[in-house]
Amino acid sequence: MDAMKNIPGTSAPIDAFPIRLIKRSILILLGPFYFLFIGFIPLLCAGRKGFRGWYWRKVKRACSHLLWLLSLRAEMTDTGKAALAADTNSIIVINHRSHLDGFALMHVVPDAKWFTFAAKSEFWKSRLLRTGFDGAGLVPIERASGSVAMETLTAAVRDMPPRRSVVLFPEGTRTKTQSLGEFKAGAVLVARATGRSITPIVIHDSDRLLPRGKFMPASGTIRIETLPPFICDLGATVDEDLARLRAAMMAAFDAPQPPRAP
Fold first, then answer.
1. Considering only CA atoms, which of 80, 110, 91 is closest in space to residue 195?
2. CATH code for the domain in which residue 155 is found
3. Contacts of 143 (CB under 8 A, 6+ apart)
4. Does pTM surpass 0.85?
5. Residue 2 maps to a domain
6. What residue stretches are annotated with the Phospholipid/glycerol acyltransferase domain (predicted)?
C-alpha cells in the first residue's frame, strides 16, 4: 500500500476565493463550448487511423482541465502511477464516492496505461454519444439481462489488448454510507473467466468535496490509492474471492489518513 505523505486534505482549498470565482466563471462561460468540441470530434475524425489513442488522451486532458477550473486536485503517489503504467492484463476496480471519481481517475492515471469504462447500451442509441463512446473505446452493457451483460463484458475484456483495462465500480453506484458498499460479483466473475488479475484502486474524499445533492464541489484534494494486484483463487468460491477483494479495499479505505492542513 502506498505511503501518502504531505498531501493536503479537503479542509485546505486549492485556491483563494477570488481565484476560485474567476476559474468557475470561465468554466460557466467557456466550458460548454470546450466540452462540446470534445464531444463532436469523433463525428469528424473517428475513422482516422490512430484516432482512439489520440482521442483518449484528449479526453484525459479535458478531465484535468475541468478539475483545475473547479480548483480541485487529484493526487496519486509516484509509486502508484508507476505501478499503473506497468500494469497489464488486468481489470481495474474502484470504489464510487461521487460524480468526481471518473474525472479524478482520468487525471491521475498515466498515459502509458489505457483503460475504458462500461456504460449502459441505451447511450448508443444517440448517434453523437455512440460515435464518441466508440471512439473512446467504451464498452456497451445490456443491463436488461444480467447474463447478457456478463457475456458482453467478458467478451469485450477477452478481446482487449493486455495494455487496456476496463474500469468497474464493484459497488454498482455511489455509496450512501461512510464506508464501502456491498460489492457485486461482476469484476470477479470477469477476472476468473478471462484469467486477468484485478487492480484495486481506492478513492478518498471525493464525496466530502461533492456530497449527494450538491451541484458545485468545494475546493480541495482527492486522494487516489493503488493497491497490489488481486489474483482470484479458482480453488475458492466467487463469494470468497469477492469478500477477500472487499476486505483489501476496506483496509485501505479505513486506514488512518494523513494529517490535513489547518
1. 91
2. 3.40.1130
3. 120, 121, 149
4. yes
5. no
6. 90-206
Region 165-176: what's the mean pLDDT? 83
C-alpha cell at 179: 464506508
Measured CA to CA, the distance from residue 128 to residue 69 in angstroms comes to 25
Q: What is the DSSP letter of 110?
A: -
**Cell numbers representing residue 95 in the block:** 470504489
Q: Does residue 72 lie in a domain region?
A: yes
Torsional class of 247: left (φ above 0), alpha (ψ -120 to 50), beta (otherwise): alpha
- Here the cell at position 257 is 489518513
What 8-state DSSP symbol labels residue 122?
G
Distance (Å, rounded) from C-alpha 11 to C-alpha 57? 31
Single-letter amino acid, residue 28: I
E strands present in the chain: 72-75, 90-94, 114-120, 139-141, 164-168, 197-204, 220-226
Q: Between vectors from CA 211 to CA 57 and to CA 143, what angle results, nearest 5°? A: 60
DSSP state of 177: S
Which residues contact residue 146 at a Cβ distance below 8 angstroms, ignoring those fewer than 6 apart?
none
